Amino acid sequence: MIPEVSIIIVNFGNIDFVQNCLDSLITNTKKVSYEIICVNNLVKESDTNILREEYNAKCNIQFINNETNLGFAAANNQALKIANGKYLLLLNNDTIFIENSIKKIFDYVETQNQKLIVGCKLLNEDKSHQISIGKFDSLTYLFSTNFFLYKLFPHSKRLNKYYLNYLKFSEPTIVDFVKGAFLFISKDNMEKLKGFDESFYFYGEETDLCFRFAKIGGEVVYFPNTSIIHLGGATTDKMPWFKFRNQTISKLKTYKRQFNGLSYFVALLLHYCGLLIRVPIYFIGGVFTLNKYLILKSYYYSKQLFVLSLHNNR
To answer: What's the confidence (pLDDT) of residue 304?
Structure first.
């Protein structure tokens, strides 16, 4: 039987997160048929065998093992090629289900225009609200972000591209992009987009996907009537330089996609200035408060300046 939803989970380096994710998914998902495709980047074969033995009898699950870390975009695209469902759920491995979210969103999408990407409400581990949605970059947003104005005016529509997260939504709402921890899209639409852009190695893939989707007339919907827990950064927090470096590279790729001509160079200048002012601010703050993490952030921001220069000289 062809499943209604193909659930794609990319797992990097560790099976603990994916086990928690799968356990909660299987427990809470009812009345909708699904298959699971778990793509393991840089996961030991012995760990994959543990997953296979534990879950083969519980659900329809397949595994793809990659000996190297291909990145989030490429791994999802691998799974897309073998997915059989009418819909795809692109799911982070550090998510935990607390209700029948897949069924709720499946039922909603079945009654709507099929040209949709849908994201649900994301919660932190303590079930407090997590940033789930945002607006595409503009030069105003970049100026505000790089000079900390968004911190002073978090509710400002003009100065904070995440201001929508401070509003309370009771109904599905069209937004620019949803966070990539939970993306629900038809397989047909994903194939029209030719999957994720694999030049995005880690970070920014979902924003780029939503941006390209809007270009072909698609709509991105925030569905606030169901929630999942997203641990957020659970995989990359132990690899800070991997995180900082790839955040910078993905931002540069995003600017190139969303800006043209002079606007692109202004975006780069704003980003460069943002990094430049953060180096002394975090270093001085770290020294005065004896906070090693702030000093480390200063160090990584200085390294990002090098990455920025290297990337733009290619």
So the answer is: 80
Cα distances (angstroms) measured from residue 153 to each of 149, 157, 308: 6, 9, 28
Element (H, E) at 8: strand 5-12
CA 237 and chain centroid, separation: 15
Residue with tokens 């099976």: 15
Greatest alpha-carbon pair distance for the chain in Å reads 63
Contact call for residues 242 and 202 (beta carbons, < 8 A): yes
For 240-255, give one letter per residue: b (16+ CB within 10 A) or e. Answer: eeebbbbbbbbbbbbb
H-run or E-run covering 276? helix 261-289
Let me know: does 271 contact 304? Beta carbons within 8 Å. no
Nearest to 25 by CA among 85, 91, 73: 91
Per-residue pLDDT tens over the stretch 267-310? 999 999 999 999 999 999 999 999 998 998 898 888 887 766 65
Locus of tokens 């009771």? 170
Q: Which of 209, 187, 211, 256 is closest to 72 using CA atoms?
A: 209
- Give kind and range of the element (H or E) at residue 35: strand 34-41
> Measured between alpha carbons, how far is 67 from 70 in angstroms, rounded to an integer?
9
Alpha carbon 252 to chain centroid, angstroms: 16
Q: Indicate if the alpha-carbon torsion angle 162, 108, 125, 57 is positive or negative.
A: negative
